[in-house]
Amino acid sequence: MIRHTSPRRPRAARTRLLIVAGATAAAGLLMSACVDEQPVQRASDDVTALSSGVLTPGVTEQLQAALDATVAEYDVPGAVARVRLPGGEWTSAVGVADRESDAPMTDDLVWPIRSITKSFTVTVLLQLVDDGEISLDDTLDEWVPEMTNSDEITLGQLADMTSGVPEYTNEAFIEAFIEDQDAAFSTEDLIGFALTEDPSSEPGEAHLYINTSTVLLGEVIKQVTGQDFDEVVAERVLEPLGLDDTVYVTEPHGWTGPHATGYQPDEDGELGAQDANFTVFGTAGAMSSTLDDLTAWGPVLATGELLEDDTHAARLVGSPLDEGPEYDSYAYGIGEIAGWWGHTGEGFGVTALVMHDVAADATVAIFMNLSNVGDHPPTKLFREFARILAS
Q1: For residue 239, which of 29, 45, 120, 357 sits 20 to 30 Å off, Cα-Cα?
Q2: pTM above 0.85, yes or no
Q3: Is 87 within the bounds of a domain?
Q4: Domain containing 270 — which CATH number?
Q5: SS3 for 83?
């Protein structure tokens, strides 16, 4: 695995622990955990992991217990989680990457990041705003005039999910996908499915999380730059940050390295393996990454490292979603949970999350090879992580 070369805080030497969780609620799961060596400390009542920047053994035990409990509650085949603080890092991989081969989960796999892709797409959009190429007040009719209400829908409304555009994942899309699950869907194809539907609301009227919004932004970015999105995001984001293991996937099964098998329940509740077709997500969800790269992306996203200060400040002005993922508030391609900022993703057997606490310089990244179980397990786990780190 190639690790990124962007500047990072020095790490202490790691100790790897191999544990058979036969006596836990996640009985039978094989867990590999790595924790930076830290001096044992006794925290006073007013010292937390977030305030001290240190992960004590007691804290890492609680983090592991929370991970095990979530995996057991949702019957997750496998998961990997990381918590990074200024003074230490904890990583744990539990369960299996593939149920048929019983291959253990590891922390160096490539994962689809699903809707976390939206955070990259909107970052590129905001960079174009900083460059003076576009304005968030520009209306969609300049680029996609055939969309209903395109003369009223602004780029800002597409970015913060208040545009009211229809969802492209309709019956026609589902039928086309079922007919050929290996087909390559273009951005134009995805937008075409949305064009057959009525608006979900009037522009600015409701806060509805709709994938079409970010697909449309991808089309805007392509027309403004004259480049395909994979080239734009590589030049503007991935290469400057050294995220060498993160890519925008342009082929249906364009994996770049070893990966876990994703699972989701069928109508009878039985878990079935999912074979991802990245192109059905477009610029709303077609990127892949690794735990290392996702952990590095979290602080950049939350602090606005790639944006002008005023642009980033405006980016963080959000509100609760009327419909959508389990954020406390959602803004311009970024969500807030328990005071942390980042993004989540889900689909085709994978759930993912990356969140960052700016004040504490703390990052959490989570992948699970399970989706479509009602809740978003990484979000539930993250809320518990946030509580542990703040208590």
Answers
A1: 357
A2: yes
A3: no
A4: 3.40.710.10
A5: strand
